[in-house]
Design brief:
heterodimer; A: mainly alpha; 13 helices; about 0% strand; globular; B: mainly alpha
């Protein structure tokens, strides 16, 4: 800006310092401290370290030999994959369908977006009732309308993945739906008219015109889905708090929280947090390379 | 003459009807079916939990699909009485609102000032500061919470057994967590405002601060609304940070209360249902009132997941 008002730099301090101070104290400093913590011995939340670990990388050694950490990583990766396929996939299908109709688009937008504004804690409780073994909504439906003879235990080792992932998918489809619909609305009608003259209609139009033009929007969605999957905590914590059944349902986020609160291994918990950040950075970098934005 | 015009009209009428019919293609019918099915999956669970919150607890597991009309033998308000009797719900709402409103107000002011400074001034290290803000969006709260907790214990804020201190202890990291998103949304908007208006105000003798509060903030109102709504929602719905700092009964927020009910209600499913309704309904009302802003805001702020 070359405006004369902004030549005098004095007020700048007043504009920038408060927010920067906040970020320095509550983001940057703790972020660095957390890395340091992962090399130290801390037995109580809020207390100081009792010296370095021996060897200093002991926690990372432990991490590699911890079978539960393996499970948590595997589940988080599965969650990420499911997020990409189902959240973004469903949202894309629903978005393309909504683009097809005229009446009621606003209604569908409002309704699909609804689960996102509700706290995941409330949704967790709701889904606990839905997936309840003895007389939950789903089991009652299956027995009543489909004539199943017995209830299904939705949280046993055969079903827990579905029970854990389905609510998360369900909650966020609306979020990606809204982004994709906005992207679809930005495609100009002229392109479609030109395509119609050239004989591209229906599915052909979707395949050769809509989808390529939606590429940048979709890559934004994919990156959001990947980084979002690493932050999931509330829903699985309410539904599967202690990794039931038999430590099979841990995610990196819930496992980190349990290490700090339930098992009181604060430094190990910090180590898991470091891994979460590293994973987030590495995977989103890879995703950025793969789904590079294209200019038309 | 009359008969001809009447004939013309009668010819026109069916053709318009036919055209309307032709417009309803098989593709559209399928579209509506699929879209309505998904809409059903998002509406039905809430409808189900609402009707069951008014049902006697034993009935829920046997027959949860019929509507317990007021006056019928299944209808009861026991679940709500129990929820209000056993848990201090008004206090939880009070705590939640104190936290979320404070976070929202502070985030708006700090992020607004910062975004304005960054948008309008040229200075050394501007690029570095900007990338610092972007980078801080990558820090999940998982990796900062333990050091923050320790720091706030040392300051006497966290675990002090005084409710207002614990609330402050929760508010501070929540503000920091929402700042970078808010700055990025506001920065984009303030940059797009014409500088000329600010210049003429300056010539009229306005100070830079007056320009910010009297001109920039009102002009950027839609983006401030977006930031406010999302800061509020994220702060209100957040379970992770709150559960670190708020442990005593009189410090509980709505989200934490739900967490407690989840682990304490045991098999009292009616209580769970009424608790879910009590938390969901206020948010539902706010959402319906503000829904246009919320949806627009989410796409503007598509940077945060």
């Amino acid at each position: 800006m070359n405006s004369t008002i902004y030549k005098k730099k004095g007020p700048l301090v007043f504009f920038l310092i408060p927010a920067l101070l906040f970020m320095a104290v509550f983001l940057f400093y703790p972020f660095i401290m957390n890395i340091a913590n992962s090399f130290q011995r801390i037995t109580q939340l809020g207390s100081s370290a009792q010296g370095m670990n021996d060897p200093w990388y002991a926690n990372y050694q432990k991490l590699f030999n911890d079978p539960i950490m393996g499970t948590a990583l595997k589940n988080t990766m599965l969650l990420m994959l499911a997020t990409i396929v189902f959240e973004v996939g469903f949202a894309l299908i629903l978005g393309l369908l909504v683009d097809n109709i005229k009446v009621g688009t606003q209604f569908f937008r409002t309704v699909y977006f609804f689960p996102i504004v509700i706290s995941a804690t409330a949704l967790g409780l709701l889904f606990n009732l839905i997936f309840l073994y003895n007389g939950g909504m789903l089991n009652q439906m299956l027995v009543k309308f489909l004539g199943l003879s017995d209830y299904i235990d939705w949280k046993d080792s055969n079903h827990f993945l579905f029970t854990m992932l389905a609510p998360i998918m369900w909650q966020y489809v609306g979020f990606y739906f809204v982004i994709i619909v906005t992207g679809l609305n930005n495609i100009s009608g002229e392109i479609y008219e030109a395509a119609a003259i050239d004989g591209a209609q229906g599915l052909k139009r979707t395949r050769y015109i809509t989808l390529p033009l939606l590429r940048n929007v979709l890559s934004t969605c994919l990156i959001l889905a990947i980084t979002g999957a690493l932050k999931v905590f509330d829903l699985p914590w309410i539904m599967f708090s202690t990794g039931i059944p038999l430590d099979e349902s841990w995610l990196t986020g819930t496992y980190m929280y349990a290490q700090a609160f339930v098992f009181k291994d604060v430094d190990y918990s910090s180590t898991i947090a470091v891994v979460i950040v590293v994973l987030g950075v590495v995977i989103s970098q890879i995703a950025n390379r793969v789904f590079k934005e294209v200019d038309y | 003459m009359e008969s001809i015009s009447a004939k013309k009209v009668s010819e026109k009428q069916p053709s318009r009807f036919k055209r309307a019919l032709r417009r309803i293609t098989a593709g559209k019918v399928v579209s509506y079916i699929v879209l309505s099915f998904w809409a059903l999956t998002t509406i039905y669970p809430f409808y189900w939990v609402i009707i069951n919150s008014f049902r006697y607890r034993g009935q829920i597991r046997r027959d949860s699909f019929s509507i317990p009309w007021p006056g019928s033998e299944y209808f009861t308000l026991d679940n709500y009485e129990l929820a209000f009797g056993r848990f201090n719900i008004p206090n939880a709402y009070k705590n939640s609102l104190i936290i979320s409103i404070t976070v929202t107000v502070v985030v708006i002011i700090l992020a607004g000032l910062f975004a304005y400074g960054l948008a309008r001034y040229n200075f050394k290290g501007k690029k570095f500061v900007h990338s610092l803000v972007i980078a801080s969006m990558m820090f999940p709260v998982f990796c900062t919470i333990i050091p923050i907790y320790k720091m706030e214990v040392a300051w006497g804020l966290a675990s002090s057994r005084e409710a207002y201190k614990s609330l402050i202890a929760t508010i501070l990291p929540q503000i920091a967590g929402n700042l970078s998103f808010a700055i990025i949304v506001l920065l984009g908007f303030i940059k797009s405002l014409p500088v000329e208006i600010e210049e003429s105000a300056y010539l009229d003798g306005c100070s830079v601060f007056k320009i910010f509060f009297r001109i920039v903030m009102p002009m950027a109102r839609p983006s401030f609304a977006t930031v406010a709504i999302f800061s509020f929602l994220w702060s209100y719905n957040d379970l992770f940070t709150q559960s670190f700092f708020l442990r005593l009964p009189n410090e509980k927020t709505v989200t934490l209360l739900l967490n407690d009910i989840n682990s304490q209600a045991g098999t009292n499913y009616g209580l769970m249902a009424s608790a879910v309704v009590l938390v969901v309904i206020p948010i539902l009302i706010v959402y319906i009132l503000l829904q246009k802003n919320i949806i627009k805001g989410m796409t503007v702020g598509a940077v945060k997941g």
